[in-house]
Design brief:
single chain; 176 residues; mainly beta; Protein Transport Mog1p, Chain A; seven-stranded antiparallel beta sheet; three-stranded antiparallel beta sheet; 2 helices; 14 strands; disordered N terminus
């Protein structure tokens, strides 16, 4: 059964103990027990001017994340879908090509792509003009089965401030 937990980090004091560093925000951690993966969704996103913007994630129904979950924020203008499956192909490059072909068949445009031996990422625009970033990793589940885990963040162009959360969010995507 998937779980969603809040992790609260306390305030840290500077070495002299005189100044407090602001407490890090609560974070939502989604954990999928079936495939043994997790991802952390920040509730605060740093802005360019050293301020932070709050983000309130809500679980949402998803017909595409049957082995994962979907979360939304900003009245549905920001969506994160995360899911996993058993890795059944012999060719990791083919998995990469199949994912790109799917994006293109759906009317999306890929403007960035990177592939390694253990993960690949795409970003670009959906057919509706929204921005997306997708990362898929090859991982082991808790039973040591080879799996793929994916997180895809989609957001309206008006919500570009969320881009500051992409790196930390995607690097938190981990298998068992």
């Amino acid at each position: 059964m998937p779980t969603l937990t809040k992790t609260i980090f306390g305030a840290l004091l500077a070495s002299a103990g005189l100044a407090a560093v602001p407490a890090a925000a609560d974070q939502l951690v989604y954990h999928n027990a079936r495939f043994g993966f997790q991802i952390t969704l920040p509730s605060e996103v740093p802005a360019k001017d050293d301020t932070a913007r709050q983000i309130d994630w809500h679980a949402a129904f998803s017909d595409t994340a049957t082995d994962g979950a979907q979360f939304e924020a900003e009245q549905g203008k920001i969506k994160l879908v995360t899911y996993a499956s058993l890795f059944w192909q012999d060719d990791w490059q083919q998995v990469y090509r199949d994912a790109a072909d799917f994006i293109k068949r759906e009317g999306g445009e890929i403007t960035y792509q990177k592939v390694t031996d253990s993960w690949f990422a795409y970003s670009g625009y959906t057919a509706d003009g929204d921005v997306f970033y997708r990362r898929t990793e090859r991982a082991l589940n808790c039973l040591q089965d080879d799996t793929t885990i994916t997180a895809e963040l989609t957001y309206a162009s008006s919500e570009r401030w969320i881009e500051n959360a992409i790196g930390p969010m995607m690097s938190s995507l981990k298998g068992c």
